[in-house]
Design a protein that fits this description.
By secondary structure, this protein is mostly beta strands. It has a single domain, classed as Jelly Rolls (Sandwich). Strand 11 and strand 12 form a beta hairpin. The chain is globular, with a radius of gyration of 15 Å. 21% of the residues are buried.
Length: 154
C-alpha cells in the first residue's frame, strides 16, 4: 500500500499521566504503520520541535525499537552518554536491555525521524528517571503505575 504522509493524521497527544505530558510537548507523530494496515509492528513518522523530547527516558522488556533520522539533529540520551544523531544515522534498542533512552531536540530547527517498534502484547516499559512503569492493560491499552505498584489516576 502506498502512503502519502500528508494524508496521515498527526497527533501530538500523549498517553502519559498528566504530570509527564508537558515533557513531550512539541512531539508530533504520524502512525504510518497503522495507515498501511500493519499488525505486527508499528512505524511512526515523528517530528520533534526545538526543545522537545521523544519520550521520557525508557526501556522495553519485550519490544525492539529502531530509529532512522531523516532531518535535523537530535541528541540520543542513554544510561551512559549523550550522542548527536544526524540525517541518515540509525540506532536500535533491543528488547530487555536496561538502557534507558530518549531523543531530545536541543537545536533551533525541527528534527524528523522514523520510529519502528514491534507490538509485543506483554511489553512493559520502565522509566528509570521518574516514578513510572507502563504495563499491559485491557484491550492493548497501557496502564501506568508507580514503582510501588499504585496506579496513576488519569
Amino acid at each position: 500500500m502506498i502512503i502519502n504522509p500528508e494524508n496521515v493524521p498527526s497527533r501530538s497527544s500523549s498517553i502519559y499521566p498528566d504530570e509527564f505530558k508537558p515533557l513531550v510537548q512539541g512531539r508530533v507523530k504520524q502512525a504510518l504503520g497503522n495507515a498501511a494496515g500493519l499488525k505486527n509492528f508499528g512505524v511512526n513518522l515523528v517530528t520533534l520541535h526545538p526543545g522537545s523530547c521523544s519520550a521520557l527516558r525508557h526501556w522495553h522488556t519485550q519490544q525492539d525499537e529502531f530509529i532512522y533520522v531523516i532531518a535535523g539533529e537530535i541528541t540520543l540520551v542513554t544510561n551512559t552518554s549523550e550522542q548527536i544523531l544526524e540525517p541518515g544515522m540509525m540506532v536500535g534498542f533491543p528488547a530487555g536491555e536496561e538502557n534507558g533512552h530518549q531523543l531530545v531536540n536541543h537545536t533551533e530547527t525541527v528534527a524528523v525521524y522514523l520510529e519502528v517498534g514491534d507490538r509485543s502484547p506483554d511489553d512493559e516499559v520502565y522509566y528509570p528517571d521518574v516514578d513510572l512503569i507502563a504495563k499491559p492493560g485491557v484491550g492493548g491499552d497501557r496502564i501506568f503505575i508507580r514503582k510501588d505498584g499504585t496506579l496513576y489516576n488519569n
